[in-house]
Amino acid sequence: MHNIFIDGKEGTTGLQIYDRLSVRNDVKIISLSEELRKDADARRECLNKADISFLCLPDAAAKEAVEMVDSPAARIIDASTAHRTSDGWIYGLPEISAERRAQIASAKRVANPGCYATGFITLVAPLVNAGIVGADYPFVCHALSGYSGAGKKGIAQYESGERSAELDSPRHYALGQHHKHLPEMVQQCGLSSAPVFSPIICDYYAGMCVCLPLHKSLMTKKYGVNALREYFAEYYVRQNYIKIVKESDIPDYLASNRIVGTNELEIYVCGSDDKITLFSVFDNLGKGASGAAVQNMNIMLGLDETTFLS
Q: Cα–Cα distance between 162 and 43 in angstroms, integer?
């Protein structure tokens, strides 16, 4: 039996991790009462007692929590942005390489990826790793997300009976090209500069679609759409949660919420040989947050990564 502590389980990601773990018989969740959940000494005891602790906290609080850990056996999965580009932390996207999966398995500190970053990296890292595009490729990325990605305050705003009519429409944000996921996107893909990134929040609860256009004329290796689809299929052939959609299965309309409730990520390779469009579709609360966190926990505990995950 493995002892698990969720520091910050009142937030969206923390609640989802709790729900996923509470039905399991191979882990025991260490809990704090409402009176003690913000008590530093009580949290410190739990963080050092648990085999793995999930940090579902704001960045500053996550950094403080890590400083509380002095047990050499205590392991951390941080769901915040705080440590995603930090030395000594392993970025928790096991599908990127066999080496990364092995690093996660033995890691003491794992940084859970951001949702938009997950969609971007699964598309871009394979291209850069194979030299299909250069590190200096001028990437442009558009992404749609359900409003659950905005956190508790954002969810309350969207679900309010007195909300603004503007929330009925998709809304672009991060207009100044400053978004918290950009540093990890650049680092994990080995890019020389950040992409032009345009995230869009929409009036539905969960689901995400990350869109990446490619110009064949700017690619180092001139792959057409079919060759690129075959490359992705080979790259992710042994992965449980990443599926490359066949050409015959590509729909006329691609919904961002089509696989909500799963830990899966679908990759679509569309367009023509000259102008290719890549899409990654997944649940921003699943593979983009809590599902990925539990997958990393399974790997760290030496379990089958699919344990209690759909």
A: 37
pTM greater than the 0.85 cutoff: yes
Six-digit token pair at 113? Answer: 């990826």
3-state helix, strand, coil in the chain (%, to 5): 35, 20, 40
Question: Cα separation of 185 and 179, whole Å?
Answer: 10
Between CA 10 and CA 92 the distance in angstroms is 22
Tokens of 140: 């442009």
- H/E stretch holding 146 reads strand 140-146
Helix (H/G/I), strand (E/B), else coil: 214? strand
Give dist(CA 5, CA 46) in Å, integer.
Answer: 7
Query: Which residue has 């690129």 as its token pair?
Result: 228
Q: Each residue of 175-193: pLDDT tens digit?
A: 999 999 999 999 999 999 9
Average pLDDT over residues 127-145: 98
Q: Which residues are catalytic?
A: 115
Q: What is the pLDDT of residue 119?
A: 98
**H or E, element range at 303:** none
